[in-house]
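Lab notebook, design round three. We kept the backbone fixed and only want residue identities now. Task for the bench partner: fill in a sequence for the structure below.
Input structure tokens:
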């Protein structure tokens, strides 16, 4: 959780107090004695108000079930990611991760167990991604990962690590969990978020189709 609200309130209180002191000095020609009781009280209430703001902002950007970032956070901050990448003359990948058999899991084990599976996938994504990567639940059983990359090797390494961790999930949960992953690269394939997600989504469904063909054969 960031301290944006608390820092803003502290700065506002200090500026407000110094403004009053400066005004009184301008009007009366001397500095009034500082009220040593009022200042701590104002700072205490300022901290409380700022913390509530930080909490609201934090939870508005998080998915309640998985505690990953949510769709709102991605939609709101994508332009910042894009601007940062262009400023550094860099690229980033978007991965779309989908649970292939989530409906079957819900039907066989119930929705509570299904929610536990989604939480576990979220934890798996956190452990498999780098510190600077963004992990989010896009909706339902679909997740996103956004990560900066130097070249295709970075993407390959991230995909391999992610698939390895996700493959271990079934053994850990004692339930078969099948996951498909698709990718898209900014700015090579598009600079638009929804277009990039559509490309990654199509690639994910292509991988899912290959799996079905392998099962048939």
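Proposed sequence:
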């Amino acid at each position: 959780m960031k301290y944006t609200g608390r820092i803003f309130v502290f700065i506002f209180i200090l500026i407000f107090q110094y403004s009053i002191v400066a005004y009184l000095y301008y009007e009366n020609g001397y500095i009034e004695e500082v009220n040593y009781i009022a200042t701590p009280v104002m700072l205490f209430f300022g901290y409380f108000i700022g913390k509530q703001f930080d909490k609201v902002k934090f939870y508005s950007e998080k998915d309640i079930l998985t505690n990953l970032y949510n769709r709102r956070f991605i939609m709101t901050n994508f332009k910042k990611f894009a601007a940062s990448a262009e400023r550094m003359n860099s690229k980033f990948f978007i991965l779309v991760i989908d649970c292939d058999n989530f409906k079957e899991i819900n039907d066989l084990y119930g929705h509570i167990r299904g929610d536990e599976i989604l939480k576990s996938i979220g934890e798996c994504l956190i452990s498999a991604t780098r510190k600077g990567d963004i992990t989010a639940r896009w909706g339902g059983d679909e997740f996103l990962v956004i990560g900066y990359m130097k070249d295709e090797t970075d993407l390959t390494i991230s995909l391999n690590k992610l698939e390895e961790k996700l493959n271990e999930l079934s053994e850990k949960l004692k339930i078969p969990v099948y996951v498909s992953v698709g990718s898209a690269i900014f700015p090579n394939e598009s600079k638009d978020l929804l277009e990039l997600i559509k490309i990654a989504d199509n690639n994910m469904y292509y991988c899912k189709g290959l799996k079905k063909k392998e099962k048939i054969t």
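Keep this in mind before ordering anything: The longest strand covers residues 91-99.
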